[in-house]
Design the sequence.
């Protein structure tokens, strides 16, 4: 015990006097840390021996189990310094009137805005780090964002006091809302006293150069910031102590965990397991793992014992489709891969954050496109996460322009639109927790439903620049001739005929339709789809024939020796999962110019594929976009493609 106390530093490193509002009370914190370390030592064997029990997939969860999860929440992220100044003191922390200086936003400003957030309709507040940060500029940059940690056991007085943070937590809980604290474990500030006092706790390597090198990502410095040696037991114990302190002082409901890919996954599995063991499974652990491949994201979510990760794969797809005008079928392909996640309903969906361009700016200020993005994440599966200003269309390009001061008066019509969507989400169990199923897609249209055994909501998106008269197939027959009102903006009504919904969709717009509730009307379908969401082969398979044709002159006998192999690879595991080593070879049909392969793929599968040639000295990939296919539920399909290498 004494040895560990000697190794774990007392959390009272000196903060420059000119920035302190109060002296730091050393004895109080030493007592707390002693208690924390005693707990860690006495329970270490139990914690390390406890196996990881992954959370169930969304398809496996009953609605009662889902009611305990976070997928009914809506998160609102505030960068404290840029939201609101609620102080009436004469203190002015702004060092320079520029985007990289402190602007004066603080906890008091957030506390004064709780009614605003509650009326907006969000249910959870996530705030940027409150740890004390670098007291002075680093060249032309200030630590206004909170990620250049100076001392993990002190509040930064520029943001507020510990008592104000407690007041914020209590104020949220009185409103039935939740609080998420931003938690940093990868690094500290460039000149933090901690780094000089315990240099052996940090990696000795330089700054990351190759961002595709996994060793550099986990062991080198991110933009020169001292990188914790997270694999060391003493570092892991230290961060458990830090976590315990803030949880027991502030009573938050979860942590947003920064820079996941820069910390070994073994650290996350152990740390997150400790948090859940100590504070229960409902303490929410949301990781920031920036990667667009759902197979990698899902593996990190499971292995790291995260409740949720940010849905970067869906984010990139929404940017491509809505902002850049790519085919809406990309959305269908992205969501089809939800089966890879433990629980896609617990992913944190978003349009932007403090690290990427504001979505409204990605849309070049087109509010019609922007509203399409908002309506998608606020009706789709997942936990919608709004970045401060999203509700008013606050613009901003790349960092730091995406961190402008909040403007509460901007675009009130967008705020009303967001509030209406959040009201609908709160009132509909289908929108909060229902299973999501695709109903229809083409290059400029996407429609899905979300349903429980008793209710259904249908969301339709027209990305075209003209009105479209749509016929959307339904999961089950409804009352013939039924008229459905559009739930958000009162657009054109929709009409039910047979098993179809007919709607004249205005250009660049969305529609939300809430069908009448009826006891167990979708129960059989609900049970069936649960199996399919877990296993893509649940509905069976269909035979798919791929046929690739070359121009005749490219396949003459004089050219033939140069063409060694033609292969197919795609997004499904059965066609290689984009690994050329697992690609499917195509067989030449006689002496002609056609090559083909036939295989069975999952019914109703949605996938992308592409061809490549393996010649004597190189590999040639087919140019252009990937081919995207939606398979039928039964029968077969023959896919023809031409290629002139």
Sequence:
């Amino acid at each position: 015990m004494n040895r560990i106390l000697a190794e774990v530093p007392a959390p009272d490193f000196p903060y420059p006097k000119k920035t302190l509002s109060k002296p730091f009370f050393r004895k109080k914190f030493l007592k707390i840390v002693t208690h924390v370390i005693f707990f860690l030592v006495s329970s270490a064997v139990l914690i390390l021996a406890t196996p990881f029990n992954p959370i169930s997939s969304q398809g496996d969860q009953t609605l009662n189990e889902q009611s305990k999860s976070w997928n009914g929440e809506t998160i609102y992220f505030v960068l404290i310094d840029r939201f609101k100044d609620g102080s009436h003191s004469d203190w002015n922390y702004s060092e320079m009137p520029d985007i990289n200086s402190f602007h004066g936003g603080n906890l008091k400003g957030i506390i004064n805005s709780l009614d605003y957030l509650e009326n907006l309709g969000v249910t959870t507040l996530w705030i940027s780090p409150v740890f004390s940060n670098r007291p002075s500029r680093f060249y032309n940059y200030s630590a206004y964002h909170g990620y250049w940690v100076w001392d993990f056991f002190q509040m930064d007085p520029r943001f507020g006091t510990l008592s104000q943070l407690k007041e914020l937590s209590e104020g949220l809980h009185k409103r039935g809302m939740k609080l998420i604290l931003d938690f940093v474990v990868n690094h500290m500030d460039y000149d933090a006293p901690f780094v000089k006092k315990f240099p052996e706790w940090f990696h000795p390597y330089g700054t990351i150069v190759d961002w595709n090198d996994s060793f550099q990502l986990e062991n080198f410095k991110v933009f020169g910031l001292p990188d914790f040696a997270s694999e060391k037991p003493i570092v892991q114990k230290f961060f458990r102590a830090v976590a315990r302190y803030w949880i027991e002082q502030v009573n938050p409901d979860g942590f947003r965990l920064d820079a996941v890919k820069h910390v070994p996954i073994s650290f996350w599995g152990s740390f997150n397991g400790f948090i859940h063991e100590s504070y229960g499974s409902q303490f929410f652990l949301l990781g920031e793992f920036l990667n667009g491949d759902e197979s990698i994201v899902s593996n990190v979510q499971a292995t790291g014992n995260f409740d949720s990760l940010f849905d970067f794969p869906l984010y990139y797809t929404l940017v491509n489709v809505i902002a850049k005008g790519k085919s809406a079928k990309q959305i269908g392909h992205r969501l089809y891969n939800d089966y890879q996640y433990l629980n896609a309903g617990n992913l944190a969906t978003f349009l932007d954050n403090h690290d990427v361009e504001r979505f409204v700016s990605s849309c070049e200020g087109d509010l019609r496109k922007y509203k399409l993005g908002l309506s998608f994440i606020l009706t789709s599966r997942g936990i919608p996460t709004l970045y401060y200003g999203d509700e008013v269309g606050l613009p901003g390009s790349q960092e730091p322009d995406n961190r402008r001061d909040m403007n509460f008066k901007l675009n009130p019509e967008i705020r009303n639109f967001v509030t209406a969507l959040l009201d609908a989400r709160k009132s509909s169990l289908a929108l909060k927790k229902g299973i999501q199923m695709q109903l229809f897609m083409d290059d400029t249209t996407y429609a899905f439903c979300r349903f429980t055994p008793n209710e259904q909501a249908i969301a339709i998106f027209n990305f075209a620049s003209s009105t479209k008269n749509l016929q959307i197939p339904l999961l089950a027959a409804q009352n013939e001739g039924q008229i459905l009102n559009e739930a958000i903006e009162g657009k054109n009504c929709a009409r039910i005929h047979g098993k179809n919904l007919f709607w004249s969709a205005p250009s660049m717009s969305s529609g939300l339709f809430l069908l009448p509730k009826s006891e167990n009307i979708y129960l059989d379908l609900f049970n069936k789809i649960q199996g399919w969401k877990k296993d893509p082969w649940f509905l069976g398979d269909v035979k798919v024939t791929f046929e690739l044709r070359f121009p005749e002159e490219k396949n003459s006998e004089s050219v033939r020796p140069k063409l060694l192999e033609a292969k197919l690879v795609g997004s499904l595991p059965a066609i290689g999962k984009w690994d050329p080593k697992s690609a499917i070879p195509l067989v030449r049909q006689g002496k002609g110019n056609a090559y083909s392969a036939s295989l069975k793929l999952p019914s109703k599968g949605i996938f992308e594929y592409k061809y490549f040639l393996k010649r004597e000295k190189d590999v040639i990939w087919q140019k252009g976009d990937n081919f995207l296919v939606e398979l039928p539920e039964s029968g077969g399909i023959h896919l023809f493609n031409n290629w002139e290498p």
Notes: Residues 321 and 376 are 12 Å apart (CA to CA). The domain at 1-55+72-279 is CATH 3.20.20.80 (TIM Barrel).
